[in-house]
Structure to design on (408 residues):
């Protein structure tokens, strides 16, 4: 069925259009009066915008040759197969009050110039999405089942209540920004997926993020505001790497920040805002400020557990410079007094003379009293004559008087 000039309802939402088979629309549908609904069971070739108050359903492949907007005011946009643009034109999918569902690849055969998502209570892509730029505003819960690739400098810019990725995400010439509009929202990546960008990866707000296996940025920041969890993880860039917290207690985390600073965790921030890893390997960084534990070890000891050629300031873990620390493993001996004699007063009082016997307990005064000095009283000298008798000591004539005179 070909409608070269498009179609309108007689009044907004008054009529629906169903095409059983393939449809070629050479111009807009609902440009003046929106259709109630559009249903095409076969392929669809779109030559202009499509506006409905209710659902739009496309059973098989959809192609478009000009910049196109598909909008449902109160219904959903449902695609049962692929979406392509042979001339690399832009596509906007807008569901003000319903869901956006795409089962097949988007831009896999002919890449889109840009893909813009607006609204959507839920948004779901079952396969890969490729476009020059991929953006989303005011989204609900959004899921990408396949690889997401933005080939242009605009990169990937998504804002939603929650985001889930089933495969890799790449922006080889741009950046990737993931913003959560709900502080209870989460971001989730497949455990072994890869995220690559040229100029940065930034995640803002939200309650949690489940990390991919690899985030690689050529030059620019890697910034994650929500508390993160991961298995084995590799982060690489030449720029700032900043994570509010990372819980990977059993995992190996490899980090290369080039000349940029490395910041993970917050002092006294609690478990969610700390670095908790099994092993941490840092190849390059201009500086580092980390808070948390490595291999179950926290405090200053964790600084010695960082595996890195970088040591000392300005590389810190729990405010301690990285590198080996001296540890006394065993105390071999201790010596303490077994008994201390109490004494008072202090030494100064002894020299100032301000003492009384009552000041001492026990009687320490005895140790400081004047010693008793031994004195010998003078004794009279009594000298008696020695009388020598006997044959050997008989008196010698004339010597007795001499002996007495000499006091013998």
């Amino acid at each position: 069925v070909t409608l070269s000039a498009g179609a309108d309802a007689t009044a907004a939402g008054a009529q629906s259009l169903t095409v059983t088979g393939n449809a070629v629309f050479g111009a807009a549908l609902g440009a003046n009066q929106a259709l109630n609904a559009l249903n095409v069971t076969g392929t669809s070739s779109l030559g202009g915008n499509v506006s409905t108050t209710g659902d739009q359903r496309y059973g098989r492949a959809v192609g478009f040759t000009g910049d196109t907007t598909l909008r449902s005011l109160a219904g959903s946009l449902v695609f049962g197969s692929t979406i392509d643009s042979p001339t690399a034109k832009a596509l906007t999918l807008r569901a003000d009050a319903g869901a956006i569902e795409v089962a097949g690849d988007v831009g896999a055969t002919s890449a889109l110039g840009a893909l813009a998502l607006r609204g959507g209570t839920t948004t779901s892509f079952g396969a890969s999405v490729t476009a020059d730029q991929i953006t989303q505003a005011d989204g609900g819960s959004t899921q990408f089942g396949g690889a997401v690739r933005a080939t242009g400098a605009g990169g990937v810019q998504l804002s939603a209540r929650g985001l889930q990725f089933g495969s890799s995400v790449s922006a080889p010439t741009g950046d990737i920004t993931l913003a959560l509009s709900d502080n209870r929202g989460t971001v989730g990546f497949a455990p072994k997926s890869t995220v690559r960008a040229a100029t940065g990866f930034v995640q803002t707000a939200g309650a949690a993020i489940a990390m991919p296996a690899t985030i690689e940025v050529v030059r620019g920041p890697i910034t994650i505001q929500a508390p993160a969890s991961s298995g084995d993880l590799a982060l690489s860039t030449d720029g700032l790497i900043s994570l509010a917290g990372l819980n990977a207690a059993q995992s190996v985390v490899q980090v290369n920040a080039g000349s940029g600073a490395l910041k993970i965790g917050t002092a006294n921030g609690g478990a969610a805002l700390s670095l908790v890893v099994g092993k941490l390997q840092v190849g390059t960084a201009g500086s580092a400020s980390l808070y948390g534990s490595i291999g179950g070890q926290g405090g200053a000891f964790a600084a010695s557990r960082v595996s890195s050629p970088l040591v000392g300031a300005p590389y810190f873990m729990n405010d301690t410079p990285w590198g080996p620390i001296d540890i006394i493993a065993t105390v071999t001996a201790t010596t303490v007094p077994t008994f201390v004699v109490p004494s008072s007063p202090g030494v100064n009082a002894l020299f100032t003379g301000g003492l009384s016997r009552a000041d001492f307990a026990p009687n320490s005064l005895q140790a400081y009293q004047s010693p008793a000095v031994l004195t010998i009283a003078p004794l009279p000298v009594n000298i008696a004559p020695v009388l020598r008798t006997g044959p050997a000591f008989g008196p010698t004539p004339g010597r007795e008087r001499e002996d007495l005179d000499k006091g013998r």
Q: What stands out?
A: Residues 104 and 138 are 23 Å apart (CA to CA). The mean pLDDT is 88.
